[in-house]
């Protein structure tokens, strides 16, 4: 009997080698894989592959008997990689490039992983080579600028650093239609499919645990409590939530921030500036039981985001699964949530005021909050059932797959929409050919692009660019004389 069959796999269908971090690795994807494997095993010939250098919890090792990474893909088996945007997935990335299969992109943007595996180890050349391989001259330019210390965080989201990976694979799975559309737009030859993220439905929140946590924090039972959960980075927009708390309409409300906080953020200072320091409670990292109690204590949960790495937020699904009403940003994959499950807060100018108004309306309508909580729990039970998620993954693995392409994949940094004089609609392929009558126009456009990516002001704006998650769209407009318009 094969190790897969002994471990509980061996069902009909695809022969899958499952490659992912597993507990005790502190990664949401490790927890996701732990929960998915029991549902996936009966649907295929499943074998778990150990990620090099990573531990596997004894109970998981005993059940799944993971094989060495060198065995992955042998004998015609299909590697199924679980790919995330942090250092725990460096070994997964290396294996996926060496032995292509199907990759599940839990994060569309992998630029942060690239930095951790190169620049964090003082490997500038490795960073430059890999970013240029994915994004051509734009990647080269951003890498050089970062080496000079002249680039901010915008490029982390504008340049996803995933193209070599996805174009090397035989198929790609993602967890939202938005992410699938982004991958298809920039990689039209890649087979990509959205599948649900499996989330086990937990028991409803414990009201008693919530009350006890409020007491420990000194928050009265009759005070409205907003909650923001998970690791706190600038893109979670908790600073915006603190600013909204200063609105007279939220004068009685408190904000609970439950999770480790990035060193880049100073919530206490922002709360003092807004005059709400006595109503902002930052707990730091919480264990599972305390985290659940924090969710139970909250009347409305916040899952704001901008920009996004294209992730499906595990903390958001956890909040919805226990039946808590939630406010999200009206943006990217979060906009896909049904209106009865989550209220969408607009981004841009006036965001704090708009958020304060939405929250005040919600907190004043307890009936609506209860209905949203019930709808959220039902949505997770229906849309994110682990068995259904496993069936979708197994079905994708059993379909005919694309052939493995060459590893030599140097791709263009951007794709032009429209035309430039002398360049036409063929992108930058004619660059340097000596046939560009509008070369001055192109030079102006490149100059402006460089300033935008570096986060530096251009005193004479010449073009418009829009960073949309993993996709960078540039639409220069030229007049007959080759001048760029506004």
List strands and helices in order, with pairings:
Elements: H1 3-6, E1 15-19, H2 28-40, E2 45-49, H3 58-64, E3 78-83, H4 90-98, E4 102-105, H5 111-117, H6 124-147, H7 154-158, H8 163-168, E5 171-174, H9 177-186, E6 192-194, H10 207-217, E7 225-229, H11 238-244, E8 254-258, H12 267-274, E9 280-284, H13 288-297, E10 300-303, H14 314-321, E11 326-329, E12 342-345, H15 351-363, H16 366-383, H17 386-397, E13 415-416, H18 439-454, E14 465-468, E15 471-474
Parallel strand pairs: 1-2, 1-3, 3-4, 4-5, 5-6, 7-8, 7-10, 8-9, 10-11, 11-12, 13-15
Antiparallel strand pairs: 14-15
Helix pairs in contact: 2-17, 10-13, 11-12, 11-15
Question: What would you note in describing this structure?
Answer:
The N and C termini lie far apart (68 Å). This protein has helices spanning 3-6, 28-40, 58-64, 90-98, 111-117, 124-147, 154-158, 163-168, 177-186, 207-217, 238-244, 267-274, 288-297, 314-321, 351-363, 366-383, 386-397, 439-454; strands spanning 15-19, 45-49, 78-83, 102-105, 171-174, 192-194, 225-229, 254-258, 280-284, 300-303, 326-329, 342-345, 415-416, 465-468, 471-474. It is of the alpha/beta class and 486 residues long.
Brief descriptors of the model:
disordered N terminus, six-stranded parallel beta sheet, alpha/beta, 15 strands
What's this model, at a glance?
With about 475 residues, the protein is an alpha/beta fold.
Sheet with most strands: strand arrangement: 2-1-3-4-5-6
Unreliable segments (pLDDT under 50, ≥5 consecutive)? 1-11, 407-447, 456-486
Strands, count: 15
N- to C-terminal separation?
68 Å
Structural class: alpha/beta
- Look at the structure and give the mean pLDDT: 82
